[in-house]
Amino acid sequence: MPELRDSSNHGSGKHTHHCKEYDSYARIFGLETEYGVSVTETDQSCDPGQVAMMMFAPVLSRSRTTNTYLENGSRLYLDVGSHPEYATAEARDPSDALVQDLAGESIMRQLVDNAQAQLRKTHGPNATIHLFKNNADSAGHSFGCHENYLVRRYVSLPAVNHQLLPFLVTRQIFTGAGLVNEHGFEITQRAMFLEDGVSSSTTRSRPMVNTRDEPHANPDEFRRLHVILGDSNRSQWATIMKLATTHLVLCVIEDAAKRGIDSGFEACSLSNPSAANQAMSTDLSCHRPVMALENIKLFRSAQQRFHANSSTDCDSAFVRYERNVQISNAETVSALEIQYLYWYIVAQFIEKHTGEIQASLPETSCLYVLNEWKHALDALNDGQIASLSDRVDWIAKHQLINQMSKRNPMLSSVQQREIDLNYHDITNGTIYPSLVHHKLMNTLVSDDAVQQALTRPPADTRAALRGTFIRCALRTGVSFSCDWTHLKTTVPVHGEAEINDPFDYRGDAQYAGLIESMKRSEV
């Protein structure tokens, strides 16, 4: 049976050769989603902790732990506070990360279905388990959706703070999940809970980007960027866009760091990221200048260059900057202004490096991402917010609440909160499935693809090696343990292998020998 090992923060030290992907724009993506648990309509009290343990009973039976890895290369575990958590297998493309994330939803539903059937035998026939893919509960607690990006080591943490963080804060105008709280409606669920910008702290405060150095790769070449500020998305489009646009921004930052030049994003550096994040979240127009920058003159100068060049001809494959966002003399800027500047810099960069950037995305078109990003900004800029309700979670939810309020002017804040939670309930919620059924929510992944991803890891990362190892061990009955970078067997076969390179999907002789030893034990 598997036992979990934790990888060293500093790698094994054995993998020292120069990885060919280091010199490209290739990236590894991953999502970690914590789910909230609630139970209703029971005949006797039953707290979420009991329900979570009931959910993980099959996992505990198979693995003798509530912390395990699965055949699709992912990690499934019960986190602190009785939050079921699913970490996707390593993916080289946002599309694969999305499919893996949706597979996680399906796995969680299976666990809930089993637990709910058991609960109804002991706690009444109407007992209902709710599993929320969101980031805040009614008691004021927050839990996260964390994004992971493999980044070249030469990108400094100050660069992350000044060049990437403003993008992460403002991208929420099209990736936020929306929240009903005592103040009304907000764009993002995490704004009120995050205190620091970039920090290694996890207990004293919650940073937007965590710098704990666990690359799960060669530490001399890479760092793992652990982004905490994003919301959990139901929208498949939003999941793709938050990963893909962040990748494109990181490509510009990496290129600038490697060449020792400015990326252009320095002009967007926020003077107080936490305050900017909270102010952005309450501006449903996305137009109000609510963010203070470290150097407003630098930003206005960059913005003027942007507009001066916006009428120049571009390659026909690229969208042109056709709508001007209003430039003011204010000492603060809007989220939309910052996003337009990021889009422009990225568009100019891709125009010069189209082949290299596209090569970093095996499945997702970088031009599709660029065009969708621009379309979302233009819709917000033109006040056509409702046109994004089929892809942006916060807009879909806000529009639904507004429509229901018109039908029922007495709709209370409690009822609005119920609508909010129902949207995120992946097991017994009705709102999101109804939107999908009536084609009011854009979907990008087929049910068949999700079904396959339940047991099939991405084929072009080391997740394929981990998945094959676990599948072989389960079939042969060999006792095993594994984590992101290490595989080990004990009884009746003793062996181990390192899988330190996340881009390696073929394995080395040591790995091949470990697999072969398990196969021989079956005979």
Which strand order spans the largest sheet, edge to edge or round the barrel?
4-5-6-2-8-13-12-11
Extended strand count:
18
Secondary structure category: alpha+beta
Distance from first to last alpha carbon: 19 Å
The total number of structural domains is 2
Radius of gyration: 23 Å
User: Low-confidence runs (pLDDT<50, min 5 residues)?
Assistant: 1-16, 311-322
Overall shape: globular
Mean pLDDT: 90
Determine the fraction of residues in helical runs and give it as a percent range.
40-55%
Spell out the key features of this protein:
single chain; 523 residues; alpha+beta; eight-stranded mixed beta sheet; four-stranded mixed beta sheet; 18 strands; 42% helix; globular; disordered N terminus; ATP binding; Proteasome accessory factor A
Describe it for me?
This protein is α+β, with helices and mostly antiparallel strands and 523 residues long. It has two domains: 3-101 and 133-309 and 316-388 and 441-451, no CATH class; 462-522. 42% of the residues lie in helices and 14% in strands. It contains 17 helices and 18 strands. Strands 4-5-6-2-8-13-12-11 form an eight-stranded mixed β-sheet. A hairpin with a 5-residue loop joins β4 (67-69) and β5 (75-79). The longest helix is centred in the first third of the chain and has 29 residues, at 94-122. The two termini are 19 Å apart. Mean pLDDT is 90; it is low at 1-16 and 311-322.
